[in-house]
């Protein structure tokens, strides 16, 4: 059985990261696709260094093509669940300020659009996760790890899941798109009447300390709401010990559990700013969500191509900061005189980067004509451009500046 739970053998050894979908028994929780033999080793760094484990992961799923009924991006801007007004006792100090009813109002604005996703096992419905209706036509946002097996057309489920709304209505949901790398998936239901839907916010506007609300169906307990604050707006996957996975999460102290996966993280304006995906098992107040800005980009890929295209250069990269630069200069007196940039510690043999002439320990200071100081900036510049040449300026030992041109390939994830 494929388990989305990394458990540590002894609770006193540290903490472990868990993806928080409820694991259904039997075939529904196993990986039966062509990528069964793909393995990902998680190298857990402090404070999780001693708690690594091999897990099986699926590669990209065969996603449905354009015309699958997925709405265009502009349709996600507005929802049909209205924000509640300022009642007596609400905050009067301005937008986003915490008042007596702020959390309740934020939850009320989104709760009707939050759904429970389940499957039938032996005649009993078992919750596997949560989701959010994001348009009146029945498009539901959830986690790929919640519905991945059913997107492949599992024989017992025939590619369908059961979706239950807050008002008790139940629908058959079809898994339309799924991208396991970003952990974003889309489920579609059909209704004869418009459905309640939630509005998207802007995760880039979040600040550490902002209040947020998590909604979902943990342990099959529908309509569960918890609140907390944003602990970090850009927690890197490498901080959690995920080797070779360059992603960022919103870290919060909201209480979430198995079954919360795919549920919304909401700001005080009742807007979705993230999608809850995982927590640290043996610690309190360490929960993580995919930023909604990234989710919107993934959905745009779904709309245009039915799948996500990611460029690949074959370069292992590291953001430089003053402390790292100081340490590297102590080791090598000829280390380049830079105060920022992206270090390339390793080049994959035969990769686009190798063919372009990159060398280990090159420092990227310009990418496609733009100065860069982080991997995130390089990723944003590349976007979904595959087969496109990029002009790169690197600095080498002894302050040697070199111009390179690298042509990206599509990543196999």
From TrEMBL:
<dbReference type="InterPro" id="IPR001478">
    <property type="entry name" value="PDZ"/>
</dbReference>
<dbReference type="InterPro" id="IPR009003">
    <property type="entry name" value="Peptidase_S1_PA"/>
</dbReference>
<dbReference type="InterPro" id="IPR036034">
    <property type="entry name" value="PDZ_sf"/>
</dbReference>
<dbReference type="InterPro" id="IPR041489">
    <property type="entry name" value="PDZ_6"/>
</dbReference>
<keyword id="KW-0645">Protease</keyword>
<dbReference type="GO" id="GO:0004252">
    <property type="term" value="F:serine-type endopeptidase activity"/>
</dbReference>
<dbReference type="Pfam" id="PF13365">
    <property type="entry name" value="Trypsin_2"/>
</dbReference>
<dbReference type="InterPro" id="IPR001940">
    <property type="entry name" value="Peptidase_S1C"/>
</dbReference>
<dbReference type="GO" id="GO:0006508">
    <property type="term" value="P:proteolysis"/>
</dbReference>
<dbReference type="Pfam" id="PF17820">
    <property type="entry name" value="PDZ_6"/>
</dbReference>
<comment type="similarity">
    <text>Belongs to the peptidase S1C family.</text>
</comment>
<keyword id="KW-0378">Hydrolase</keyword>
<protein>
    <recommendedName>
        <fullName>PDZ domain-containing protein</fullName>
    </recommendedName>
</protein>
<feature type="domain" description="PDZ">
    <location>
        <begin position="311"/>
        <end position="398"/>
    </location>
</feature>
